[in-house]
Amino acid sequence: MTHDPACMKRSRINAIMAEADQMIRSHGFTLPPWAYWSPDQFKARASDARAVIDARCGWDITDYGAGRYDQMGLFLFTLRNGRLADLRRGGGMCYAEKLLISKQDQLSPMHTHVIKAEDIINRGGATLVVELYGSDPDGAFDETVGGVVRCDGITRAFAPADKLRLAPGESVTLMPGDWHAFWGEGGDVLIGEVSTVNDDETDNIFREPIGRFAQIEEDVAPTHLLVSDYRDWLAI
Q1: What is the pLDDT of residues 181-227, one digit of tens each?
Q2: Within a 13 Å sphere around the CA of 204, how many CA atoms are in the beta-carbon half?
Q3: Which of 55, 58, 118, 149 is 20 to 30 A from 82, alpha carbon to alpha carbon?
Q4: How many CA atoms are closer than 13 Å to the CA of 1, on its beta-carbon side?
Q5: Does the 7-233 domain belong in CATH 3.90.1170.50?
Q6: Is residue 190 within 8 Å of residue 124, measured between CB atoms?
Q7: What angle do CA 127, 23, 197 make, to 5 degrees?
């Protein structure tokens, strides 16, 4: 098999999962039991896990289609996610929660959201750097515009390209139209994300024309399924 440099090997994804699980546990968090199901267990219990599958909860590892995970990538695990229908009608499960790991100097590239507001929380590790820009009147990226965010509930104005440095325990609230990129500084960072309903298919607007999900080379069997595997592996 010829390796496509723009693809992530499944063996690398399996290794990242194991490393991430170890880091998550080291900070006192434990993933839900279904996180550790094998692909065969997931297939056998797909009807029981319909809410997990439909909400696209679970493992998510991306290099944004660029094939340079260490330089530009992100580990995510969606713990819970609500329904856009509930959000639209103004009641019900309108929230989501994730754990993320941003490795040292690993860029999560500049993007914003149309629907989602989110709290980005440094849950432990090194410093989390969040670079900020505002939007033009149409919501597009504008390198000349700043804005206002809340850090741990305290209002803070930012100029274009300002960099927040969040120590463990600190957080920033980002609203739709707040353009942001982030990375770990001085080491790896465990990040919490608490937000309105999350839709990774359509609600990530990147400044550059990049993909949200990785292309995968199946050099070994998966240890656990990614959310991007559900459609093919579970025939949904």
Answers
A1: 999 999 999 999 999 999 888 888 999 988 788 899 999 999 999 99
A2: 16
A3: 149
A4: 10
A5: no
A6: yes
A7: 75
